[in-house]
Amino acid sequence: MNAVDGKIALRSGNVDMTHGGGGRAMADLIRDLFRRHLHNPILDQGNDAALFSVPEGRLVMSTDGHVISPIFFPGGDIGSLAVHGTLNDVAMSGARPLYLTAGFILEEGYPLADLERIVMSMARAAKEAGVPVVTGDTKVVEKGKGDGVFITTTGLGVVPEGVHVSAERAAPGQAILLSGTIGDHGVAILSKRENLEFETEILSDSAALHGLVAEMVAAVPGIAVLRDPTRGGVAATLNEIARTANVGMILDEAAIPMKPDVSAACELLGLDPLYVANEGKLLALCAAEDADRLLEAMRGHPLGAEAAIIGTVTEDPANLVQMKTGFGGTRVVDWLAGEQLPRIC
Amino acid sequence: MNAVDGKIALRSGNVDMTHGGGGRAMADLIRDLFRRHLHNPILDQGNDAALFSVPEGRLVMSTDGHVISPIFFPGGDIGSLAVHGTLNDVAMSGARPLYLTAGFILEEGYPLADLERIVMSMARAAKEAGVPVVTGDTKVVEKGKGDGVFITTTGLGVVPEGVHVSAERAAPGQAILLSGTIGDHGVAILSKRENLEFETEILSDSAALHGLVAEMVAAVPGIAVLRDPTRGGVAATLNEIARTANVGMILDEAAIPMKPDVSAACELLGLDPLYVANEGKLLALCAAEDADRLLEAMRGHPLGAEAAIIGTVTEDPANLVQMKTGFGGTRVVDWLAGEQLPRIC
Fold this sequence. Notes:
Protein name (chains A, B): Hydrogenase expression/formation protein HypE
Domain PurM-like C-terminal (chains A, B): 172-318
Number of helices of chain A: 8
Distance between the termini of chain A: 33 Å
Oligomer: homodimer
Shape of chain A: globular
Domain PurM-like N-terminal (chains A, B): 46-159
Organism (chains A, B): Oricola thermophila
Family (chains A, B): Belongs to the HypE family.
Order of helices and strands of chain A: EEHEEEEHEHEEEHHEHEHEHEEE
Largest sheet of chain A: 7 strands, mixed
CATH topology of the largest domain in chain A: Phosphoribosyl-aminoimidazole Synthetase, Chain A, domain 2
């Protein structure tokens, strides 16, 4: 038993099967750890479902499982990532996120002190984002049937009137904008896994983008497409949009922002940064005549300070994403090399 | 590679790490398996978030991870359970479920044919319930870091005007109703695990209860509490309500419906059926004068045909749940024996 005087022993205890059993041990874990750190008026209702009122209108809902390894990494951990990742998916509809839910799958034997660190980090990220975790669930699997902690978060958001953001709205002539440097998250994770040391530590860019999106939507309500280039990086994301909308794209390699450290690490590790995951960046497509205004709005926000126009949507029945390279040539940014890094989010 | 002529090889292939990589393999899996079976106009939008309109009013949101072992069991599988479990959590607010999301965590090496069976079962359950899966997510973990398939579902529902269902509304004098026999789900799972054979196969009661709830709410809009006795069974659920509302309860053992087979199996396995999980039953608390009307409404629905009034809410600062036994005595239905069966849902 991990109970000391009726309180669970956070400092010394470990997750055991009773924490998922529906009995008193689970109730104690929920009270002493999850509710204690994540508390808000809706979560505190204490029912199996969260109750709240919404205005009439268009909502979006998105869900994301998080299985990142290692659980703690430079610039974040699975708790903050689970908040940011799902908030960003909601924001990529142009929406304002309202609520989050969290489902935990814990492995027997995982240290409760580490779980508390994760939940505290989650609570901090949710608070900073202004979006509460309103309901949750905990399951426990036997040692060797999981990997510490998996967290699946779901977000609900409301779409402002007049905003219609969708991949199928990509159209020839539109500008392609990127909110900042690429590859930070993936390289941070891999450096940690491989125990690589660089002159300065490379941090994940994990961040909640809905504040940036709100500024962008206010400046250019007609934004056609928003997408966060997570798994598979900028390459996979743009290829997916191109296929969905039956268009092509041409990128300008020189315009794509990248940190020198990240660039050097990619070279060392044999990674193409276009395929490396980001967790705090977005791609935006808008009419060419709106591009400068959108860029200005992005640069006015801390998370878009290094934003750039990186390319143009083209007419192309083959849906190719191409890139003008530094040497004056053009190469195809293929979609096949999808999996560079497993469990990056 | 699990690709044959550009299609994933469902019959012979296995989940591999590329299916979670964000590249083409993942896109193919989503298209050929998830979207193919779960398709509906919202899911078919193909964005990372699902967009839909809701009427003004009160919504509920609930999330549930599913880690059941074995994945296929008599009366269902993890796919149908993941739909039913979350629909029921939403319905226990008195709400009408509108939408579901699903996050899959797959273990490398899991047979794609089995995954397809699960997704088909999920699609069938969602269709029967009239609630579409509108967005989802897939992650893959290395062999030995998961256990086949975990599914976290989140549900969104709308609460009818005038309905206020919440555990804290439990009050002395209220009647406690149960919608049918207890223990079916837990015993079905354990029989399968232990390879026990009974004269007739014991099936899980896994079912979506929102249709029953709609009838109940229509008959008695003033229902105080609804709760589905899943993990920890009727005992844990009633103890949780008693503690939340600071009341006691007295149950009548003879009134609690149970199948003879389930009763026999519990005796054989040394289980107290009050602690065994159900996945298609609910407990309801309502004013004593409404109890007969509520009972009649429940019995008029196929999933409530064997409903019964099983007890009364009492004033008790110790929040004890007690039971009048067949021998004329009274015993305390404690909350400590929470974990009887791991990974029951």
